[in-house]
Amino acid sequence: MNFRGLHIVIAACAVALFFGPDLRSQDQQYTQFYASPLTLSPAFAGTSMQSRAAVNYRNQWAQLPKAFVAYTAAYDRYVPEINSGFGLLVSHDRAGTGALSYTSVALQYAYEIKLSRKLSIRPALNFGYGSTYLDVDRLTFGDQLARGEGAGQTLDPDRNRFTQEPVGSPDFGSGVLLYSENLWFGASWHHINEPVTSVIGNETTLPRRLSVHGGYRFKLSDVGAFSKRQYIVPAFHYQSQGMFDQMDIGFYYEYNPVTFGLWYRGLPGVKNNRHPAVNHDAVAVLVGYEVNNYRFGYSYDLTISRMTNRSGGSHEISLVVEWASKSKKKKNKRRVIPCAKF
Question: What are phi and psi of 239, to 5 degrees?
Fold first, then answer.
C-alpha cells in the first residue's frame, strides 16, 4: 500500500472511531503521566513547592504516517495562605492525516486538608471546555478513489453531513488525592457531563473516564555516601473509559539526577471487551534527567499487541520546570507529594 492509501485508511479509521454507531471517542494517554500531572487528575494542581510549568508531546504509533499526535501545556501553583492549588491545562491532539483534532482548555482547583501530622487529602475540581474539529477537505471520499490520482473535489453528497465549524461544549471533572511522606493514592473522574464531540450533528459524546493511581516511595538502605538520593518507586495507573480499560504497572529507579522506568500496559489474563484477543498493549522504557529546576524525560512504548509489526511504537517527550522563592521553598518542602517525577 502506498503512503496515500495508508493516509486514507488512517483517516477512515479515525472517523469511524468518532462516528461509528457502536464506538465513541477516547482520550489520548501519556506514558509519562506524572510529567503531565494535571492531565492525570486536577488533585495534582499545586503539588509542587510553589510554581510549575510542563509541556508534553506524544507521537503514537510512529510508523503509521501522521497517526496520532498529542500535545499538552500546563501551569500550576500552590498558595499556602489558603491551602489551595490552582492549575491551567491546554491540550491538543490530531488523528489520521490531521483532519480530526480535539482541543481543550481547563481550569483546576484543589484544596489541601491535613488529616494528621503525616497524612493529607486533596479534593479537586476541573472546569474545562473542549472543541472537536474535522477538516473535511483533508478527507478522501469513495468517488475520489474511483477517479484515481489527481481527482478533484469530491462529489459525494455525504460531505455535506459534516459540520464545517468546530463543535464545542463544557467539560467537567473531579479528583481526590491522599498522600503521606512515602505513599500516595488517588482517583479522578473525567468528562462527568459526557461532552458532545460529534461533527455530524448527532449526540455522540466523550464517555466518562475513571482513573485510579497510586504508588510507594522506598528509600534504599543507607550504605554509602550517595544512598540517600536513591529510591525505588513502584506505581500503578488503572483507566476505564467506555468499553475499554487498561492497567499501567511498573517502577522507577531514581538515582539523582537520573531516573529510569520500566512499565507494562495491559490487563494480563483479561480479554478485551467484545474481542477474543488478550489485552496486551505495550512495554515502555523511560529515562529522565533533572538539572537545577528542570526535568527532561523521554519514553518509548514497544507495542506488543497485534499491531506489533505495524505501529513502530510510540515516542514521548516531557519538559517540566519548577521554581519557588527561598521562603516558600523551605516552608512547602515537607508537603511535596512523594509520587514519581515522570
Answer: -130, 145
Over residues 170-224, the pLDDT tens digits come to: 999 999 999 999 999 999 999 999 988 776 666 778 899 999 999 999 988 665 5
Which phi and psi (to 5°) does residue 116 adopt?
-155, -175
pLDDT < 70: residue spans in the chain: 1-26, 65-66, 96-98, 136-164, 199-202, 221-228, 268-278, 306-311, 329-335
In the chain, count of helices (H) and strands (E)?
5, 16
Closest listed residue to residue 87, CA positions, set 47, 31, 29: 47
Quick one: pLDDT at residue 336? Answer: 76
What are the φ and ψ backbone dihedral angles of 112, each rounded to 5 degrees?
A: -95, 125
Q: How far apart are CA 75 and CA 320, in angstroms?
A: 10
Q: Which CATH number fits domain 3-335: 1.10.10.2840, 2.40.160.40, 3.40.50.300, 1.50.10.20?
A: 2.40.160.40
Nearest one of 59, 95, 96, 90 to 75, comparing CA atoms: 90
- Grid coordinates given for 244: 475499554
Smallest Cα–Cα separation from 325: which of 50, 117, 121? 50
- In the three-class reduction of DSSP (H, G, I as helix; E, B as strand; rest coil), residue 214 is classed as strand
SS3 156: coil
What's the pTM value of the predicted model, to 2 decimals? 0.84
C-alpha closest to that of 168 among 101, 215, 69: 101
Q: Is residue 258 within 8 Å of 288, Cβ to Cβ?
A: yes
Q: Residues near 340 by Cβ (< 8 Å), separated by ≥ 6? A: 34, 215, 233, 235, 252, 254, 259, 261
Please give the single-letter amino acid code of residue 132. T
Indicate the residue type of 299.
Answer: S
Quick one: pLDDT at residue 9? 36
